[in-house]
Amino acid sequence: MTPANALAFVERHGIVCEASRRGAIPSLVDEIAGEPVRGSWWSHPSSRAIFAATRAVRDSADVLVCRLVDGKITFVHRRLWPALARIADRFTPGCLSRLREVHAANGKHRIEETPFPDWVPPTVLATAKRLKQAQAIETLGALVVQCRELSPVSSRLLQLFRVE
């Protein structure tokens, strides 16, 4: 899978876990590997391709990197940002912070967090304000319902969208 394919995968699915599939929310690492990856993906034969693709997604201006699903690295495509912003009060504060890996000259890296809504573009906030709460829930809830039809999904997401 190329970095462009990885970005298309995130765009198509809307919400994707980087690794460790959570319910039916797809895992980018598993998709790239072509199989479920248990443990660290660094030891997988596809680790170089996984690294290149996940870094391309993390670096994309069209993808929010956060900890939305079970505190794990989650990618949310830009098309869902207005709905997410509209119902942000339903989430714990930290799970919508934008995460960015910063590499120092000495080779070490750290994660920078930009809290919600500081990272949200003004146009997205304006669109979110025009959305009715029910529309936002329906937009995001449809993803959850679609995932749930395949297999159980994160109980926290189900609770947020009151999907029974």
Structure description:
Helix 1 crosses helix 3 (47-59). The protein has one domain. The strands form two sheets. The protein has a three-stranded antiparallel β-sheet. It has helices at 3-13, 28-33, 47-59, 81-86, 122-130, 133-150, 155-160, and strands at residues 15-17, 63-69, 72-77, 98-103, 109-114. The chain is globular and about 45 Å long. It is 42% helix and 17% strand. A hairpin with a 2-residue loop joins strand 2 and strand 3. It has 164 residues and is of the alpha+beta class. The model is unreliable at 145-154 (pLDDT under 50). The protein contains seven helices and five strands; from the N terminus they run H-E-H-H-E-E-H-E-E-H-H-H. The longest helix is centred in the last third of the chain and has 18 residues, at 133-150.
Mean pLDDT: 85
Give the end-to-end Cα distance, rounded to a whole number of Å: 36 Å
Helix content: 40-55%
Query: Which percent band covers the strand fraction?
Result: 15-25%
Q: How would you sum up the major sheet?
A: 3 strands, antiparallel
Number of strands: 5
Order of helices and strands: HEHHEEHEEHHH
Contiguous runs where pLDDT drops below 50 for at least 5 residues = 145-154
The strands making up the biggest β-sheet line up spatially as: 1-3-2
Q: Using only CA atoms, what is the Rg?
A: 16 Å
Counting structural domains, the number is 1
Q: Which structural class do the helices and strands define? A: alpha+beta
Total of helices: 7
Specify the overall morphology. Answer: globular
